[in-house]
Amino acid sequence: AIAVFKDNKNIGYIPKNINVQIANCLEKKHRVFVGDIIYNYGFIDVLLYFYISEEKNNPNIYLDKNTILDLQSRKIDSKYLKPKSDAVKKNLFYRKKIVITGEFSFFPDRNELAELLFDSGADIDVGISKNIDYVIVGKSPGWKKIEKINELGIKTFNEEEIKNIFSL
């Protein structure tokens, strides 16, 4: 098992079966992105488990149900992380690598937006790199992502632009 620490204090362990999955992933690839591991192997759920466990051990740390639901809604289902093969080829997002970041009022669950893009043939990714074509930016995106988007000059769309493109 992998020990998880917070403030130099052991707060739990990642189960052995997940460690084996990580090892298998690393054996197959020379380079693995942390974001891929988090999304593909459900580590958001593992991290939520540790938050909940720590909350029980320390009443000064509190993660309410709404916060947990918010964290879960930010996770994009892995079935949307590969482009749909039978998508209509004549659209803006077909075969484009896209990252979704921030919060969206029209798409409170990112999977709704991911499914829309997936049906258009988009290749959805979780991290910003030079290979990304577009980023869909909602409210309160991560500052590091914005910095990297600007550095790489990646085209962005906001929620209203996406709604207009898809006539929603």
Estimated helix fraction: 40-55%
How far apart lie the N and C ends?
46 Å
Return the string of H and E elements.
Answer: EEHHHHEHEEHEH
Report on the biggest sheet: 4 strands, parallel
Low-confidence stretches: 52-56, 59-63
**Which class best fits the helix and strand makeup?**
alpha/beta
The CATH architecture assignment of the largest domain turns out to be: 3-Layer(aba) Sandwich
- What is the fourth-level CATH superfamily of the largest domain? BRCT domain
- Strand tally: 6
Strand order, sheet with most strands: 4-3-5-6
**Mean pLDDT, nearest integer?**
71
Beta-sheet strand percentage?
15-25%
Helix count equals: 7
Q: Summary?
A:
This protein has 168 residues and is of the alpha/beta class. The chain has seven helices and six strands; from the N terminus they run E-E-H-H-H-H-E-H-E-E-H-E-H.
Describe the structure.
The protein folds into 2 domains: 2-73, no CATH class; 78-165, BRCT domain (Rossmann fold), CATH 3.40.50.10190. It contains 7 helices and 6 strands; from the N terminus they run ββααααβαββαβα. The protein has helices at 16-28, 34-40, 43-57, 65-73, 110-119, 143-152, 159-165, and strands at 2-6, 9-14, 97-101, 123-125, 134-137, 155-158. The strands form 2 sheets. A 4-stranded parallel β-sheet has the order 4-3-5-6. β1 (2-6) and β2 (9-14) form a beta hairpin. It is globular, with a radius of gyration of 18 Å. The relative contact order is 0.11.
What is the topology?
Blueprint: E1 2-6, E2 9-14, H1 16-28, H2 34-40, H3 43-57, H4 65-73, E3 97-101, H5 110-119, E4 123-125, E5 134-137, H6 143-152, E6 155-158, H7 159-165
Parallel strand pairs: 3-4, 3-5, 5-6
Antiparallel strand pairs: 1-2
